[in-house]
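Obj.: predict assembly geometry.
Materials: sequence records (below).
Method: joint structure prediction, all chains together.
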Amino acid sequence: MAYYNKLIETASKSDMFLIQSLNLSRTVRRVYENVPMYRQRMIDAGLTPDDIKTVDDLHKLPFTCKKDLRDNYPYGLFAVPREQLVRIHASSGTTGKQTVVGYTKNDIEMWSECVARALTAAGAEKNDFVHVSYGYGLFTGGLGLHYGAEKIGAAVIPASSGNTARQIQILQDFKSSILCCTPSYALYIADTIKANNIDKESLSLKAGLFGAEPWSEEMRREIEARLGIKAYDIYGLSEIAGPGVAFDCECQCGMHVNEDNFIIEIIDPETGEVLPDGVQGEVVFTCITKEALPLIRYRTYDISSITHEKCECGRTLVRMQKPCGRSDDMLIIRGVNVFPSQIESVLLSMGSVDPHYMIYVDRVNNLDVMEIQVEMSEEMLSDKVRSIEEFGNQLKAKMESTLGISGKITFVEPMTIPRSEGKAKRVVDRRNIK
Amino acid sequence: MITKQISIFIENRKGRLSEVIQTITSQNINIKAISIADTTNFGILRIIVDDPEAVAVQLKTINLAASLTSVLSVSIKNKPGAVGEVLKILADNNISVEYMYSSLAYSGDMGNIIVCVDKEAEGEALLKTAGYSD
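Observations (raw structure tokens):
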């Protein structure tokens, strides 16, 4: 049984309580002193840092949500002076504005260790070639896995995303032994290998760490069978750190949360009440070791449940189930967060478009595809096909630059998209992930 | 000579063109000329009718996306070279044709073509000078 940090990963409950309480009280004091929003919220709630001494006091603190990041865009919630920042990442936000996150040198160290623990739990060690097919860039996937793999002393192959034929060539020739990408891309690689009559035995893969989008147990079995590997889930979100917030061990019975850094709570999304083990609700994280952006009780909108039972792998770290849905309307398409409101704002920015639209998401050959149906309006209509097609291309380009992924634009006749009096149904997700 | 054409957006699916034509004719609208431009996903149905402004409003009430465009309606003799003569006059005067189609109506030995050009007022003046009418 290999652990990256055995002391922490197998710590007793009482030790973990002490570690968390110490880090929590320090962090709360730091945000109170350095982040105006948190200071004001604590004052409004009648709290001072002295009121937060242990994990048992956590529930007194108000929640943080995505809107707070947007309202304080880009750096308003950062708790350190600029010279201490060493990295910025970002993910798509609800209204086109990105959610910006920052890291100090210590934050990168901490995050890298979280990923290193995940890689170690998946059987990776310093003799491995870790093939990272997550995108490199503002997205946390690529660099997150990269730093974690370096931390364990493995050789990183920073393949980044795209060009599947080249990816397979690298997998074969460079003898990649650990694959890191989205689960749907892993299946796409498996499809391409099969389509090109490549024997999976010609690959040296033994395991994969897959995340950044929801996937089912069935999909796990399929990836395992088709690539001849063991498939491990890795969970994270940029607001908290990135991939590695929680990870699968070889028992694959829930992801261990790196709770010495991130305290997890499950709440009732309506009332905010903290729910006990085994009960499904919204996942909330508090960063207790982050320096640059220590979010307090951050609502993820992911739906899951937790258990504190000891795992057969020997780890005592609390386990969370694979998220089984969202309590908001966010879609995860090819690992990219997409909000219907972003699509709406692009349509409205085009001037002549009525915001009557429908988003269809499908999984074709294991890749997510998005189609946006837009009602043709009198203003958009021209007698010339060319003009309509040009308009369609402009809309597609703007959609792509705003959302970060491409989608097909289809024009439909007026009044064919159902109108609703209450909350409009804007999304038809046919991927059937659950 | 200058007349208003109605363009109607139609989704490219089986039977939709027929449905739209039925809907239009059931409103007692007589289609005098018709053409369709098609793409993979949609088509643009272009029609010439009497009183196009009123018809366009009528079409909107039955949820069809319709817009008006100025085009030239030109009577030509039913003989070889007649279309070519009209096009030559336009081309010689640096007027571009976007698209054209022929009308469904014939009277005697005369036919009728619908031409969409980039400069319709100029085109109309030139063709009138050359003796054409609608």
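Conclusions so far: The mean pLDDT of chain A is 92.
To do: check interface contacts against the pulldown list.
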